């Protein structure tokens, strides 16, 4: 996959209001979380699928930024005291530790609306047309919403301190983690001019790498060292969390990651262009050590 | 203004997922707040302006519901302990008192995405076209977002326990209260097929009644009784809040309400149809006792 990080980060900055505003502290809070160092996986996937379908990076940038804005809002709200109560995010203080809880709540809310303003702005609509812009934005709204990513968060809350089966863990992770990655890839196809078959295939690729990503996360929480991972290990077991590892064990988890990665690579056959970068990316996710 | 409440409430219910979901508690929380008894002012304005511009209620309903969903998310988040910490809303327990803080946070987040899914759904786009749907959704995103409604909330937080001037109070209320009403009215014109002049006039009408509404609120907090108002009075003074009343006094507040109401009625002259209902509504807001 091409390195799109610089273009994405420059574009994110351009969506922030410039000049004097009475709500400057809120704008600073939004900028703080958008600028945290990250791999920008989701928006990069949007751009990669847009290019694969024959679209331009320029036309797809508002949609890529929108995915990152929604991802960022979900992290800010996830870290709040009433949720995971995390003081750190990517090695830096979490938003509410820097700006207080009330501003962090509002920063998340504002980021969600910024995502739709970006996708439905004059430039974005002029570049891809009203129908495609609307469809891409709807995919993001559905995949990130009540029975998508946010629904996955609610299922996760409902699983605390009780035993559940693997089907519910899988459903929770499909919603909480995979759904936004699906949106990222499908939106890229939509705005890049891909056909229905390609949009569907992008969703399959994303679903597979999204689940594999989460299973590898669960494995590393057991097998890695805190130094290698850059965050505490063993926390899932300590918190008696229901995970793929706790329910399936190492061997079946590794087999599942292999299977999902093969599924992801297979889905790429729906595209005519060069998909080697996306195939490599799936393999890298499966074999990552941190 | 026509009584649209039944149509709006029936449509809001239709946007909720039916059937079995693992995130049922979250869906219940969303339904709870959407179903709280209310006057449905904002979505009614969307429908009224859509009809005034020659559009149908049916085509405008997704946009009206979207405005109410955004309004409802803002109330849920506003009541949270880290914000106003209110236990009651419209005489009923607030969302987080019934469903706990974490679910209330997620319910607000989900309502925001539901709004965009509604406006950009197949039915909505088929009825008004992709360009208009995208434009209406963008208006909502901008007016409710970082330098709109959410920005107004942030300014409000920044004003606590310090003296500020009337300009900042006015700016805060323009953003926090008037902006969403502006979105409601302008979106009605956009989806109803109104021209640029009409969209602008709808925004002026909304801006004027939005500000007047807030000033009347401030007046009633001083002049009304708790029984008449159905909520505690005198809370602004007790909390040393900066309000139109504390900064301008009764006489100038009453004059301002009169001026704004005249401005609202004047703005309606941009429309050819029957605007008497909307003019009456502005007068009623100005003369309300609760």
Write the layout of secondary structure elements.
The structure is a homodimer of 290-residue chains.
Chain A: H1 5-14, H2 24-35, H3 41-52, H4 57-79, E1 88-89, E2 92-93, H5 95-99, H6 101-119, H7 122-128, H8 130-143, H9 149-158, H10 166-192, H11 196-223, H12 226-229, H13 235-238, H14 244-267, H15 276-287
Antiparallel strand pairs in A: 1-2
Helix pairs in contact in A: 1-4, 2-6, 3-4, 3-10, 4-6, 4-7, 4-10, 7-8, 8-10, 9-10, 10-11, 11-14, 11-15, 14-15
Characterization of the model:
Two copies of one chain form a homodimer. With 290 residues, chain A is mostly helical. Helix content of chain A is 73%, strand content 1%. Chain A has a single domain, classed as Farnesyl Diphosphate Synthase. In chain A, strands 1-2 form a two-stranded antiparallel ribbon. In chain A, a hairpin with a 2-residue loop joins β1 and β2 (92-93). The first copy, chain A, starts with a helix and ends with a helix. The interface between A and B is large, with 62 and 61 residues.
């Amino acid at each position: 996959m091409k390195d799109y990080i610089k273009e994405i980060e420059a574009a994110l900055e351009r969506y922030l209001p410039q000049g004097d505003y009475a709500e400057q502290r809120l704008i600073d809070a939004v900028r703080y979380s958008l600028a945290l160092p990250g791999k920008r996986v989701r928006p990069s996937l949007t751009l990669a699928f847009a290019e694969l379908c024959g679209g331009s990076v320029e036309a797809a940038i508002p949609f890529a930024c929108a995915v990152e804005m929604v991802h960022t809002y979900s992290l800010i709200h996830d870290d709040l005291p009433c949720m995971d109560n995390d003081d750190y995010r990517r090695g830096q203080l979490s938003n509410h530790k820097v700006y207080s809880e009330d501003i962090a709540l509002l920063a998340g809310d504002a980021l969600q609306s910024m995502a739709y303003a970006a996708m439905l702005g004059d430039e974005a609509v002029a570049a891809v047309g009203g129908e495609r812009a609307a469809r891409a934005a709807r995919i993001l709204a559905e995949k990130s919403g009540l029975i998508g990513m946010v629904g996955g968060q609610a299922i996760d809350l409902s699983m605390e301190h009780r035993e559940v089966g693997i089907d519910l863990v899988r459903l929770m992770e499909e919603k909480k983690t995979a759904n936004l990655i699906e949106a990222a890839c499908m939106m890229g196809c939509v705005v890049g001019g891909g056909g229905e078959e390609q949009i569907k295939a992008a969703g399959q690729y994303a679903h597979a790498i999204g689940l594999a990503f989460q299973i590898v996360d669960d494995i590393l929480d057991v097998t890695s060292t805190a130094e290698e991972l850059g965050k505490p290990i063993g926390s899932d077991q300590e918190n008696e969390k229901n995970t793929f590892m706790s329910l399936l064990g190492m061997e079946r988890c590794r087999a599942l990651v292999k299977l999902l990665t093969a599924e992801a690579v297979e889905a790429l056959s729906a595209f005519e262009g060069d998909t080697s970068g996306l195939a490599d990316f799936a393999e890298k996710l499966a074999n990552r050590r941190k």
